[in-house]
Amino acid sequence: MTAFFALATAVLWGLADFGGGLLTRRLPALTVVVVSQILAVIALGAVVLGTGAWRETGPQLWFAVAAGLVGPVAMLSFYKALALGPMGVVSPLGSIGVVVPVAVGLALGERPGPGQFAGIAVAVVGIVLAGGPELRGAPVQRQAVVLTLTAAFGFGAVMALIAHASTPSTGVTGLFLALFVQRVTNVATGGTALWFRARGGAPVLPAGTGPRVLWGLLPALAFVGLADVAANGTYSIAAQHGPVTVAAVLSSLYPVVTAFAAFVVLKERLRTVQAAGAGLALAGTVLLAAG
Asked: Which residue among 47, 89, 92, 203 is least crowded, i.e. fewest CB within 10 A of its CB?
């Protein structure tokens, strides 16, 4: 069950990142984040009301609040680092955030077997290589490195926090409420940042367009928001029903999914290092699942 839900998380996160990347070619990144999360809040709010999940309040929801605060900061740091580039270094470096939930799992007493440790090592190397790192070329600005590491730590922290935002005793309804609280916090944090940017003169929408441009992109924005929410949900289930160390590594295979989606949809050719990374990631997956 852990492997199934963790791999589902990787697929959902990978597709959400791919969709978000396409949307940022049409809209400012912060606008994509805020609008997609507002749509997710609306959908989750209906689910929470319909299922009575609002009754599952408890101290564990503070983990959801923390995840909601960290998530937008990590995402915006990542987008800004990508803008500074080079992307071939920034993108794979951002995936090292997986060490955070793995370290948490080890600190809580999880002890993967030798095969699983080997699988973790192989998969992490594969995940980094799948991003297509540039081993030669322009030097990386110090600010880009700092922002990327901030984003990586943030992404890993969200994984660790969301795993504790609900408990098996609260069931699926508790998970719905935790995800709703996380998204409301996301919107509050991102919306505040968007408001300050607008006050400072930064464009909220592309120049020469109005709110109408959002209507045509609502289906894509909704997909990104809901896929991200679903990924957090499947990851939480995976982490609750098996070792966090395994769930985190398998879930972090999403760069492979994003690269594959770009290959299929945009006809982008995979570089040799990316193909090798994908192969290693899959080999690590087999070792983890077999362990």
From this structure: 203
- Distances in whole angstroms, Cα of residue 217 to Cα of each of 22, 28, 45, 166, 213: 11, 13, 21, 32, 7
Q: Is 193 helix (H, G, I), strand (E, B) or coil?
A: helix
What the block records as the tokens of 219 is 């289906």
Phi then psi for 242, rounded to 5 degrees?
Answer: -170, 180
Token pair of 168 as six digits: 């098996």
Distance CA 151, CA 95 (A): 9
- Rounded CA separation 246/7 (Å): 10
Measured CA to CA, the distance from residue 284 to residue 290 in angstroms comes to 10
DSSP code per residue over 73-133: HHHHHHHHHHHHS-HHHHHHHGGGGGHHHHHHHHHTT----HHHHHHHHHHHHHHHHHT--
pLDDT in tens, 96-134: 777 788 788 888 787 777 777 777 777 777 766 765 555
